[in-house]
Write a structure and sequence with these properties.
About 35% of the residues are buried. The chain has one domain (about 30-275): P-loop containing nucleotide triphosphate hydrolases (Rossmann fold, 3-Layer(aba) Sandwich). It is of the alpha/beta class. It has helices spanning about 1-30, 70-80, 105-115, 130-140, 145-155, 160-165, 175-190, 205-220, 235-240, 255-260, 265-275; strands at about 30-40, 45-55, 60-65, 90-95, 100, 115, 195-200, 225-230, 240-245, 250-255. Strand 7 (about 195-200), helix 8 (about 205-220) and strand 8 (about 225-230) form a beta-alpha-beta unit. Helix 4 crosses helix 5, helix 4 (about 130-140) runs parallel beside helix 7 (about 175-190) and helix 5 crosses helix 7 (about 175-190). The longest helix is centred in the first third of the chain and has 29 residues, at about 1-30.
């Protein structure tokens, strides 16, 4: 009897161990970007303080917090845009397990994998077509037929094709603000990024344009990781599956969006999402 019981317990332990290993492997694959003890300074200004964060693949992660808390700097550290600002970085930012701050990292290739859309639309002073084709031309696509396909697919993914298909040669500045922002998203998508960073992409848009961008974000999560910085609490709740709350350069809380807004663990998180400060 004891022997049978021991065998059962050993078998059960093995199954639990295998299950934990599978879960560990699954979780590892699901993490697209991870920061480990990330610290960042601009001169003597300590902007990011010991940030430890795991960003899931094929999910939307919202980063919220009051102005000046380090949200934009955090996402700019994910594709090393902070290099352009003269930042000093300590700690690690891992993309698919590889530290992007390792010596010898190809930063151009990195920014091909991690695209970015800024707060204000910034189309290039050229045609709608050439805006979208700009990246593919630089990186790999030269054949006109393939380029036409990339441009069309990118504009369709950005929910803009139907509005511009008959005027692709028009100057991008002729588009409305909302259309320009979707054009910038199409331009970012044209090089097939693994991650799309969005820094308050709807802050300058009207409600109709904002709704189109939010619908687009919801669709993009089926293919890539999307990280959005926003001051709009309702927007974060609508479009994201995970939310990080930052305050004074620190990551205060990170969890599923529903928990952050309904049952936060930290009092500061609760105060912020309920509007007591911000």
């Amino acid at each position: 009897m004891v022997t049978v019981l021991n065998k059962f317990m050993m078998s059960n332990n093995r199954e639990n161990k295998i299950g934990k290993e599978k879960e560990k492997k699954r979780t590892s694959r699901d993490v697209k970007i991870e920061t480990k003890n990330l610290n960042l300074w601009f001169s003597k200004n300590h902007v990011l303080k010991n940030i430890n964060l795991k960003i899931s693949d094929k999910k939307v992660t919202a980063i919220i917090g009051p102005s000046g808390c380090g949200k934009t700097t955090l996402i700019r550290s994910f594709n090393r845009m902070v290099d352009l600002d003269g930042a000093r970085v300590e700690g690690e930012v891992l993309l698919d397990g590889e530290n992007i701050y390792n010596y010898g990292t190809n930063v151009v290739a990195l920014r091909e994998k991690i695209g970015m859309v800024f707060q204000k639309p910034n189309p290039f002073p050229m045609s709608i077509y050439d805006n979208v084709a700009y990246g593919p031309r630089i990186h790999r696509v030269s054949d006109d037929t393939n380029l036409d396909k990339v441009v069309e697919e990118s504009l369709r993914h950005a929910a803009l094709w139907g509005e511009v298909e008959d005027r692709l040669n028009a100057n991008a500045y002729e588009l409305s603000g909302g259309q320009q922002q979707r054009l910038c998203i199409a331009r970012a998508l044209a090089i097939n990024p693994d991650v799309l960073l969005m820094d308050e992409p709807c802050s300058a848009l009207d409600p109709i344009a904002t709704a189109k961008i939010e619908d687009l974000i919801w669709e993009l999560k089926e293919k890539i990781a999307v990280i959005i910085v926003t001051h709009n609490m309702q927007q974060a709740a609508r479009v994201s599956q995970f939310t990080a709350f930052m305050y004074l350069g620190e990551l205060i809380e990170y969890d599923k969006t529903k928990k952050i807004f309904e049952t936060p663990k930290e009092e500061r998180t609760k105060d912020y999402v309920t509007g007591k400060f911000g």
